[in-house]
Amino acid sequence: MFGQIKKESHSKIYTAFVREKPVDMLIFLNNAKGPIYSSILAKNADCTYSHVVKVLKQMEKNGLVIFNKKGRLKLLSLTNKGKDLAEAFEKVRNLLDKK
Q1: Phi first, then psi: what are they for 91, rounded to 5°?
Q2: Where are the domains of the chain?
Q3: In 3-state terms, what secondary structure has residue 79?
Q4: With 0-12 CB in 10 A as exposed, 13-18 as middle and 19+ as buried, what is 85?
Q5: Could you read off the pLDDT of 21-70 as tens digits, one per residue?
Q6: Which of 21, 43, 56, 57 has the most CB atoms at less than 10 Å from its CB?
Q7: What is the β-pairing status of strands 65-70 and 73-78?
């Protein structure tokens, strides 16, 4: 339903340039086909919930994600800036991971 964040390790050059999990979370949110909330993101990123929330708060502060409250859930969505950045990171990741 939501897909998976790639679990295999990326090239060493990619991980030298970026913090892998936050970038993968951003790409995952961009490619999601349905509503996403923090616990789904934590499970798929293989991170603790508290770490994911901390990263998401930084992303929100920088205008990349928006929290939309629906009842007891806080659904996540990317801003236009977040989508642009996710697409750019995905291109960079694909270029650096190419053999």
Answers
A1: -65, -45
A2: 18-97
A3: coil
A4: buried
A5: 899 899 999 999 888 999 999 998 889 999 999 999 999 999 999 999 98
A6: 56
A7: antiparallel
Fold topology of 18-97: Arc Repressor Mutant, subunit A (1.10.10)
Q: Which residue has the tokens 């998976």?
A: 4
Structure tokens at 99: 């053999």
Rg (CA), the chain: 13
Amino acid at the residue 15: T
CA 68 to chain centre: 16
Tokens 């930084």, residue located: 58
C-alpha to C-alpha distance for 70 and 60, rounded to whole angstroms: 17
CA 59 to chain centroid, in Å, comes to 10
Q: Extract the tokens encoding 66.
A: 């928006």
